[in-house]
Specification:
Largest sheet: 6 strands, mixed
Number of strands: 17
Length: about 240
């Protein structure tokens, strides 16, 4: 609806993920995924995408407060009255002060691989909410020097429902971390045919510790001897 009003560079939102329009061709719109402080996420078929225009609210809210807003649509027949509008409630989550999550996440050199074999190496690009003000940084852009006190945390889950925590790497200051086959065996994950990785940022300063509002959640199969027999035949 009204896609003729959309332009390259505009923002959009689907569920909690922010997007940026990078190309328009007829009725097809191409986006940069997971911009600002969000990450690429899965969305159900048919989920609505909203295109966003800038609007500023001067009222200030504090941590833990619930903002209550009413939207008043305006058409040729007039504006919806305040008393008829539904109240929208949103909890304040310190979004402004939280670090941006890492970008350009790859597993064994690939973004969102269907399967991985052997040692697992996770790489990423740091982000910086303070310096990312001149332009929008895409997920695929390179590393940016992080804020002082900012680190990366990785959690790896396995088990039948991918809810068993197998490994945590925290306080990471670089841009890559390996999980070797020897470590995988020691951590009890040698038989997990599928794993889930969560990757987020944390920043600590004199006012406290803050974690990125959103985190990457990537699932992938593991291939190799004794794993995924009939699918990858011991490799990928």
């Amino acid at each position: 609806i009204d896609t003729d009003m959309v332009a390259v560079g505009d923002f959009a939102i689907v569920d909690n993920e922010w997007l940026m329009v990078t190309a328009i061709s007829g009725s097809t719109i191409t986006f940069a995924r997971g911009v600002l402080d969000t990450v690429p996420a899965a969305h159900a078929s048919g989920t609505r995408i909203y295109f966003v225009e800038p609007h500023y609210i001067s009222h200030e809210y504090v941590t833990g407060e619930t903002a209550q807003l009413r939207l008043l649509p305006k058409t040729g027949r007039g504006e919806l009255s305040v008393t008829s509008a539904s109240t929208l409630s949103r909890s304040i989550q310190q979004r402004f002060i939280r670090p941006y999550p890492p970008g350009n996440v790859k597993i064994n050199g690939a973004a969102y691989p269907a399967a991985v074999a052997g040692d697992i190496t996770i790489s990423w690009a740091n982000r910086n909410r303070v310096t990312q003000t001149a332009n929008v940084v895409k997920q695929t852009d390179g590393n940016i020097s992080p804020e002082t006190g900012q680190t990366t945390t990785i959690r790896i889950y396995g088990g039948a429902s991918l809810t068993t925590l197998r490994k945590t790497f925290s306080g990471l200051t670089g841009t890559s971390q390996s999980w070797t086959l020897a470590q995988i065996a020691t951590d009890g994950a040698s038989l997990d045919g599928r794993i889930k990785l969560e990757i987020e940022s944390t920043r600590t300063d004199s006012s406290g510790t803050f974690t990125s509002l959103y985190k990457h959640a990537i699932e992938t199969d593991r291939a190799g001897y004794g794993l995924q027999y009939g699918n990858y035949y011991g490799g990928i």
